[in-house]
Known about the structure:
Helices cover 28% and strands 39% of the residues of chain A. By secondary structure, chain A is α+β, with helices and mostly antiparallel strands.
Amino acid sequence: MQDKKPEIMERLGRVGVTGLKTIVMTNWKGRRYNFVPEIELTLDLDKERKGVHMSRLVESITECIEEEVEIRHGSLEEIEKNILEKLKGKHSFNHAEITMKTELVVPKKTPVTGKTTMETYGVEVTVSSDKGVYTKRLLVEVFGNTVCPHAMNKCEGKTHIQRAIGILEIETDYGNEIDLEDMIECVEDAFPSRVYTILKAEDEKQVVREMYENPRFVEDVTRGILNNAKKRFKNVKIRVKTISEESIHRHNVIAEGSCRV
Amino acid sequence: MQDKKPEIMERLGRVGVTGLKTIVMTNWKGRRYNFVPEIELTLDLDKERKGVHMSRLVESITECIEEEVEIRHGSLEEIEKNILEKLKGKHSFNHAEITMKTELVVPKKTPVTGKTTMETYGVEVTVSSDKGVYTKRLLVEVFGNTVCPHAMNKCEGKTHIQRAIGILEIETDYGNEIDLEDMIECVEDAFPSRVYTILKAEDEKQVVREMYENPRFVEDVTRGILNNAKKRFKNVKIRVKTISEESIHRHNVIAEGSCRV
Amino acid sequence: MQDKKPEIMERLGRVGVTGLKTIVMTNWKGRRYNFVPEIELTLDLDKERKGVHMSRLVESITECIEEEVEIRHGSLEEIEKNILEKLKGKHSFNHAEITMKTELVVPKKTPVTGKTTMETYGVEVTVSSDKGVYTKRLLVEVFGNTVCPHAMNKCEGKTHIQRAIGILEIETDYGNEIDLEDMIECVEDAFPSRVYTILKAEDEKQVVREMYENPRFVEDVTRGILNNAKKRFKNVKIRVKTISEESIHRHNVIAEGSCRV
Amino acid sequence: MQDKKPEIMERLGRVGVTGLKTIVMTNWKGRRYNFVPEIELTLDLDKERKGVHMSRLVESITECIEEEVEIRHGSLEEIEKNILEKLKGKHSFNHAEITMKTELVVPKKTPVTGKTTMETYGVEVTVSSDKGVYTKRLLVEVFGNTVCPHAMNKCEGKTHIQRAIGILEIETDYGNEIDLEDMIECVEDAFPSRVYTILKAEDEKQVVREMYENPRFVEDVTRGILNNAKKRFKNVKIRVKTISEESIHRHNVIAEGSCRV
């Protein structure tokens, strides 16, 4: 049925499955990770064919993941490329892409007492194949804060402070090795201070001190992330969005920017 | 089919429709309001009957709302009671309840410059009929902030500040007249400062000043809301939850309390 | 402070407020509408200036909405253009855009008994100014269903059916008059059948009959929407996405397409 | 500061942290699991004390999880009880409770071709301590479908079908051993058919056939889950909610029930 001619002949750019969840294991730089990502896998459909064999898309994912258990591939992007490779044998397409959206837990140290604290980051890893050429898109979502320099100036050192979320997205060739952990650092370093899951009294004092020493608008944070990423990575497209959940308003403020380096 | 005996004979406490959206108009104390609430309408189902005639539930809602356009009832709770009354003629039940979840926009003045600013609040209004006795449950969700008194004490007046959300829920007899606007004030008055959609420079200074003069934990805010509601309302059950979206952590902190007065 | 030179000199493409909610009233073709949309208003920021005066953005919105109460402008896009015009006097920018995301309630008739039923649609209206040239982007989100033609073929007329959501987005010149109601029809006509808030027994029979007479993949629905929009509108970019919430899987399937006409 | 007397003296029932995410490892019946649950940990606060030492709550979680890496406790509920035990040494309280909300991935076989397919379920595990007495609450969220028996009767075997979600919650003594996998089966067996991530053509035919052989209202599904749980478990309170995402309506229908056995 899927291979029949459709009544309406229109090429479709992205057809596939979304919101699929399964277990994925990686072995990145000697450390084992277990994820239950949300997966989206799509390909283009030429105007002569009615539909995509959706079950073959799912098979590409599950077969590949079963193999992974043996092979222990190194990263989400390696697994994703393998899935697209496997898909080539089952389907004809010009463009295909796969995204895994999950959470990365990274051990960190608190700033003064040096306690180990597990910090969780939203991440998205996409690999695309365009006529056989592979590119990737990496995204990290990092919590931090903004501290209003304008209010600080007007109110003798007092100001409003709030949680902010910084999102850094990098697009580059598949072969350009980029660590999600490095991307996370680019974002964390741009906030007035980092945030931690655990903070002893001395750590908390230090975090508050940093906030007041580095007052920053949401615009400053976005520029900081852009700048950090430009210094750290090469041959990449960079997109940044910061959202500040204002403590004096019901609404949020945002700042977005992008560049190429 | 719905009136047949079911294979498995179990009484069900709540059966009905949810997530239904439609236009509702009220005329509360001389001011006209238009809402597009999300509606949930359920009744109990005795163990002898297979199903509820869902279309009759929807009809009770739509017929009632059509009449409202003429009659201009005063409040969401009045419309809800009418819907339950209409339902009695169509269905047999011991217990029925209807909830409308929507947003209330209230004009306010900014604290120094006195500009008019429209502030939006999440509200939920529920009317229940239990063997013909009507009760109601009102809920408001109000944005504000917390200002850590502990950090302020340890860091010479510096502290961390964040957006917080206060939720006040009141359960009482149907006839006990309670204004959602009064409930909103109970919550707003318990925060270190109110928040506003628009703030001129002088207003912002005042809001920041208030924050530092009234440092409060999430526990303090919840106790303040409880206290304000106890003083304002009679013959009610009060439930309060405050969520503080910490600016120094990835996670939130919460405080819940309840009482009866 | 906002007008100072920033430490890091990067142009930012979009800076502003988001998630702002307020009341907006329109008078579209003689019918009055009240909305409480979620508003995002952004402009670009050149690399020489530290920040945007966020309160002026909010003022452009509120002043314009207050005037509207008198003037009764016809549509969300008219109000949005006015807000951007007002912003020109307060801010210098090359690019600015404003989006209102809300719900449109449209009265319809059930297919057999002809009862009036209120149907609710998600809509987004964006107006952009690029060096003074205005364009707009309109989006509607419409519920419907998919009926698997492949299973119907294999299982002697039996098949799996599920809720689906069709999203149609149109980009065009500001002056190109396009009704959201017409866009909604383009989507509704592409589904196996329409869906209704109220359905009497005879209506339900008709809806079920239509489903089995028009089995369609998610791909078919997307092509149908594209085709309907191509026939109805001129000088537009069209983007379509359909999401089918499979009743035989935990995950969803999607089909996206776009064209220009 | 937290130990000071508060201005307003009200006992609070639940104070603590929520939305905290970290890695948790278990070793349930010989199989290793890795979770990144969302954690909520609260305790009651008497009216004489201003606040809870939030950092001690987080420490109870992190210390316990670090030990787990060595000890390999068997289940989420075992880890949760350990966290509450550890909390006793740091805080005085009458009532404390901890919830972990995460996803359980279970390997299953497709119905005809017997392929291995990974199925993902939402789960919540709560342990409460009330004056030293431990109880627990387990919840599973399972996807399935409903098939309207009323329409099937009226439309000569044709009907509307849709995705449905069944939620089963069990409350019982801490020591009463209950498998989440068994709870999941209670829900899956109550739907017209199970749903699968992967389905070959023959499997899909079988799933469609089962749907038409077991048409069920949302009420039937809820009663079926109640019945299955009553037969399987002892000394438990059972709560069930099923949500059917109608393919002929914009809104959902629900059925809830509860019993004790």
